[in-house]
Amino acid sequence: MPKTFLQLVQTCFSACLFLSGIGLPCNSFAGDVLKLNVGILKTSEIERQVSRLQHSSLATEWIVQFKSHIRYSDRRGLQKSGIEIFDYIPDDALVVRTDFKTLRSYRLSHSHVATFVPFLGSFKISPEIGMTNVFNCDRREALTIHFFKAQEGPKLTGLIGEMSENVLIQEHLGRSLDLLLPRNLIPMVAAMTGVEQIQSQSSGSEHSTGEAAELLFPELGMISKSLK
Predict the structure, then answer these.
(1) The pTM is what?
(2) Residue 43: enclosing H or E segment and its boundaries?
(3) Contact of 134 with 194, CB cutoff 8 Å
(4) Which end of the chain is more exposed for a tag (fewer CB within 10 A), N or C?
(5) Which of 163, 87, 78 is nearest to 119 (CA)?
């Protein structure tokens, strides 16, 4: 079965902890890159490209990256500020839910924060889905959508089902939704608050990570290259 985004990053995090325990460096890019589902991206490049986007400050889900390993006090500080924490992302970052004003205030008062960027819809789309173009935009794909919270699943499922008569809901269970979705609706679903990841129900992948990252950044128009 394909792993969810959370399972993938937890695996990376566990490996990092193991390497730290035996004295091998695993934090050489701390505060400098994000190891996302679509590839390894320089945080500075994401910041530069996101600054060009209109209404990016209206996002409700964000990636907060710290200057080094995440401390217990960092998590407590986020929670005390009313910021909801979801997932860990290598290196030293958390996916959170809050508004721009709250997060900006938190960063200004916490020197351990390196930066924060919106958790863009394109970050949520698995590389195996590939590129949508004029020739396949109406084709329906068998997809699994993962939600951050199970309690938000029924509402999100209803909203997705109302997008088009061509959407076919197959099964909703907890944080996962199986469905047939027209390819041209994938970016709209990915941009929804509460959606964690979208992946193909098939396990095959036609693109390398670097190629897929280039294809799946329509908001930014950036080309992502894996770091050596």
Answers:
(1) 0.72
(2) helix 43-50
(3) no
(4) C
(5) 87
